[in-house]
Amino acid sequence: AQSVSQHNHHVILSEAASLELGCNYSYGGTVNLFWYVQYPGQHLQLLLKYFSGDPLVKGIKGFEAEFIKSKFSFNLRKPSVQWSDTAEYFCAVNGGYSSASKIIFGSGTRLSIRP
Amino acid sequence: GAGVSQSPSNKVTEKGKDVELRCDPISGHTALYWYRQSLGQGLEFLIYFQGNSAPDKSGLPSDRFSAERTGGSVSTLTIQRTQQEDSAVYLCASSSEGGLGYTFGSGTRLTVV
What we know:
With 115 residues, chain A is mainly β. Helix content of chain A is 0%, strand content 51%. In chain A, the strands form three sheets. In chain A, strands 2, 5, 6, 10, 11 and 12 form a six-stranded mixed β-sheet that branches. In chain A, strands 3-9-8-7 form a four-stranded antiparallel β-sheet, with no helix packed on it.
């Protein structure tokens, strides 16, 4: 069965620090990978996605993620965080060649940025 | 519509009562999903519709939960005889085939007292 692990439950950083949030998944076949973000009081938004091609994916607001197939990982990175990046971040995966099948989400990582 | 619309945004109900949650997906999106987000938890998959049929309802936690979708559009999630553990934010999302990932609604916060 598909599963997603996010090992960091709560990360606290100062502004301008670099960010890396870990995500590992369990799935044997072709996967589509996603990072979603939920800002305080707002609904979930897609940050970036990987379907195929270049394993380094760039998303909105300066975020990027790298798909490493051999490690079953899809870590999220940002070189310099801002206070406005305070949010909850969810890694997610679905299998197959379409994004229309169900997506399995990790338990989320809460990111707090100290101004 | 421009986004996924859910109603009501907040619902407080007494234990034992039935509730109905509504989701209006993005026009033309054939796939519709229900998730539940409890405090401090990730997103728990409940059910997925493709058109009006539900190929995967494996996440429904008990037979008190049911969902339907009519006309390939609006979906309702019904919880019968609500329990306190049903308190959560119920999220709906829709997507089209081929590829952009889900678009989520803002959710319905259900509180069972």
